[in-house]
Amino acid sequence: MSDPAEIHDAVQAEVGSVLIGNEDLVERLTIALLTDGHVLLEGVPGVAKTTLADLFARATGLESNRIQMTPDILPADITGTSIYREGTGQFELQRGPVFANVVVADEINRATPKTQSALLEAMQERHVTIEGETLELPDPFIVVATQNPIEMEGTFELPEAQRDRFQMKLIAGLPDRDDETELLRRFDADPDLGPSRAERVVTAEEIREAQERVADTYVAQAVQEYILDLVEATRTSSHVEYGASPRASIAFLNTAKARAAIQDRAYVIPSDVKSLAEPILSHRLVLSTDAELSDLETGAVVEEIIDSIEPPSRELVVEDEPAASVD
Question: Where does the AAA+ ATPase domain start and stop, copy by copy (predicted)?
Answer without folding.
Answer: 35-176
